[in-house]
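Researcher: Here's my situation. A collaborator sent me these components and asked whether they could plausibly form a single complex. I don't have experimental data yet, so a predicted model of the whole assembly would be a useful starting point for our discussion.
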Amino acid sequence: MGWLHAGHRSLIQRARGENETTIATIFVNPRQFNEAADYQRYPRNEARDLEICEEEGVDLVFVPSVEEVYPPGFDTTVSVGDVARPLEGAARPGHFDGVATVVAILFDLIGAERAYFGQKDAQQVMVIRRMALDLAIPTEVIACPTVREPDGLALSSRNVHLSLPERAAAPVLRRALLAARARWEAGERSGDALRDAMRETLGGEPLATPAYVSVADGGSLAELDRVPDGGPVLLSLAVRFGPTRLIDNEPLP
Amino acid sequence: MGWLHAGHRSLIQRARGENETTIATIFVNPRQFNEAADYQRYPRNEARDLEICEEEGVDLVFVPSVEEVYPPGFDTTVSVGDVARPLEGAARPGHFDGVATVVAILFDLIGAERAYFGQKDAQQVMVIRRMALDLAIPTEVIACPTVREPDGLALSSRNVHLSLPERAAAPVLRRALLAARARWEAGERSGDALRDAMRETLGGEPLATPAYVSVADGGSLAELDRVPDGGPVLLSLAVRFGPTRLIDNEPLP
């Protein structure tokens, strides 16, 4: 969606290392914004984005107009079921329909062998992987590690909206996740206890308004009463700072 | 969906005439049956279908299992909006979601340049064309003329379910469409009058239970109060004979 940062650079670098040709798509997709105001204020800077793509050696940048992605009379929706329902899906009605639909279109248009997404949007990666597998789109979905500021804040195009005090407070997302992870490493297996660990950390930051904290099965994203020792688990949260909503997550092995 | 008849043969012949390689897919798609009983009783004869494909010179027949089309954990739906809502969409909840989803999968799997469908399922063709255009699937959707028995009954795999008296009565669908068409050719432009013409003809056949009669815009499928002189119009109907439901249509130029 543009407003490229070091997280996107890491995706491009990974793609270039594993493929002969690297294509970047830049498209602020109106269909995945559940609030019109959020779409309007999403940051855009095409000239700078193209410079970054050039610097990183992208072979082709696809910057379609809204009309090019959604032809006249467009009226098709791609929906993913269970894995799209909780967390961001519950908080942002229609968001993942918009994501699944535009990514199906972009995958069909581009015909890439591999597509690289940031693990920061963990649920998005799961929704896209499910969609591509189910619709037999032969593009492999690859999740890449979240890139962070030195203080732990996950890079996000939305960070630009933070005021200075909000920016100073925003690493609380990471601290909350690490607090829960530390409790888990110390042997805690109660989902509620781990969620409480996140809530307590967030509660210490007056500028942060938690939207959700989650301890979920890493495959289904169903909330867990108890963390099993075997399977993957995803700790995740969403927090508002004024009008700006940030998310982050931490997978447990 | 198999149980191949002369209508399917005509699709294969058209495809062979326009392409180097012709692939047929045979798959009775459980997701497009809104009634489980209808799925169970849908006629199947793979051996005969393969013989017909051989006779017609099909290069490759793809006969996947349900598990091959819908991998474990399958959870994605492709939905088309307005054009999928009336007529068959209203009568058969979920039907066109099932059609759009399986055809998106088959198009992505096969990668054909052109796909051939019977005009008998006029709304289906419109839904599939919209879906393929919207999702940027580069398969051209081509509608082929309905093939009919000498008495006018449109070929359909479901015709096999008709009892002898029902089979004798079934051409009433075609007669009803032609009655409305004749009224239109005589200058009638009232949608209700044309629908009445179909209902009157159907009313003369005791074994026929009409489900709907429609005089609709040929682009949007919205019901018409008055038939415009310019654009395309679709006359269509659905009629039950006992447990068997038949459809047919007649486009007005």
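Model: Some features of this prediction you could bring to your collaborator: The beta strands of chain A are 23-25, 60-62, 76-80, 114-118, 140-144, 209-217, 233-241, 244-252. The first helix of chain A runs from residue 6 to 18.
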